[in-house]
Amino acid sequence: MDSSIPEVSNVFLPGDALPSGATVEAGAVYVKYDKSMSASALNADNYTVDGSSVFSNPIFVGDKTLVKLTIKDSAITVSGSRNFAISNAVKGENNVAIKSYAVVKSFDENVKPVLTSASLVDDMTIELVFSELLGTTGFTTADNDFLVTVGGTKNVVTAVTDGTVGDNKVRVTITDKITAEQLVNSTIAVKTLETADITDKVGNKLTANTVVNVAK
After folding, report:
1. Chain centroid, CA 6 distance in Å
2. Parallel/antiparallel/unpaired status of strands 157-161 and 169-174
3. For residue 17, how far is the Cα from the chain centroid?
4. 9 pLDDT above the threshold of 90
5. Is the Cβ–Cβ distance between 88 and 100 less than 8 Å?
6. Which residues pair with 171 in a beta bridge?
7. How far lies 140's CA from each of 34, 77, 124, 158, 159, in Å?
8. Residues 6+ apart with CB under 8 A from 2
9. Fewer beta carbons within 10 angstroms: which end of the chain, N or C?
10. CA distances from 58 to 8, 71, 112, 209, 216 (A)
């Protein structure tokens, strides 16, 4: 029977290349062991960042030597160097525990940007303001990002433009002009959609299903 001590071969953070060639997605951490591991490797409490349990839903990927950890939403509020540690409660399939493991890694914050306000620029344009600076991608499929309603009726978004790249504002263009009567009598609202692919500067996607009324 193999009685050797399992070891951590590597820890991969978002943007790193996995052994398979795939790139680690935002909000995930992968731990590579040199041996097949037991179910103890899937206990989220056995992994910490600066002493705090910030992970959920560990799963094996491919085989039992690679564990994917998902960082809980908003668990890391400031980007910077953090102490990533694995408890010696983790055991291999041979029932031998690893040695306690710790390494300093650079973690990005994982707070999702939130739509905070909206205002009417003209009869076909709405300016949206977010809680943090945005990235530079995700503005190509306009109708997948936001739902605009006027008096409860959808007004299709035809374009999302990022006037000043990297700030916290974007503008959306709608299909039908806002009429003078609607301006007086109708509520204009904007909702962020689950399918939105706009992110902040480190790749955190917009908080979905936020609804704000448009200031007229």
Report:
1. 31
2. antiparallel
3. 18
4. yes
5. yes
6. 127, 161
7. 42, 28, 18, 10, 8
8. 35, 94, 96
9. N
10. 16, 10, 21, 26, 47
The pLDDT assigned to 44 comes to 98
CA distances from 177 to 69, 98, 124, 170, 182 (A): 47, 64, 5, 19, 10
Q: Residue 36 corresponds to which tokens in the numbers above?
A: 């097949």
Phi, psi dihedrals of residue 156, rounded to the nearest 5° = -60, 135
The pLDDT-based confidence of 132 (bands split at 50, 70, 90) is very high
pLDDT band at 137 (very low <50, low <70, confident <90, very high): confident
d(CA 194, CA 208): 5
Angle at 23 between CA 21 and CA 207, to 5 degrees: 160
Amino acid in the structure at residue 159: A
State how far the Cα of 30 lies from the Cα of 32, in Å rounded to an integer.
7
Tokens of 80: 């910077």
Hey, how many other C-beta atoms are within 10 angstroms of the C-beta on 31? 22
